[in-house]
Amino acid sequence: MMKLFTQLGVVIAVILTLGASAIAADGGNPKKGKHLYKKQCKACHSVNSEGPELTPMAKTMGQWDRFFERDQHKSKPEVFKALSEQELKDIQQFLYDHAADSEQPQTCG
Ligand code: HEC
């Protein structure tokens, strides 16, 4: 009987882990995201540009998710409106994967 409960516990842990990763990994392609970030974001987010200098590790994974899901570039909405849903997902994935608290924080985009 104890063994059955242990196995059940493992199954539940696996389901929870998969569920948690599915929330953030929204089907974005981080390789495309990196390319898009350089093309669509860096011009305004480097030193001496219109917006503040920004790198993936400027924010945590949770902050990037909140930015893409809630803020949606509120200070300049036309930036996000010009991009497709998939392009935004790709960029979000790239930034998320290299956020400050990710396994591979990255300074350069
Ligand atoms: C046309 C110029 C422009 C482009 C293109 C642009 N941004 Fe911005 N961004 C801005 C400006 C201006 C602000 C507002 C800065 C402020 O409020 O002082 C801003 C703010 C932000 C912020 C909030 C700043 C912070 O420190 O929290 C984030 C995050 C951001 N942009 C991400 C992006 C991403 C990701 C892209 C590419 C999809 C992008 N931006 C493309 C101009 C731009």
Automatic annotation (TrEMBL):
Annotated keywords? Heme, Iron, Metal-binding, Signal
Tell me if GTP-binding is a UniProt keyword of this record.
Answer: no
Keyword field contains Membrane: no
Q: Which InterPro entries match?
A: Cyt_c-like_dom, Cyt_c-like_dom_sf
Tell me any Pfam family this protein matches: Cytochrome_CBB3
Quick one: signal sequence residues? 1-24
**UniProt domain Cytochrome c: residue ranges:** 28-99
- GO MF annotation: an example: electron transfer activity
Name-wise, this protein is: Cytochrome c
| Provenance organism | Shewanella gaetbuli
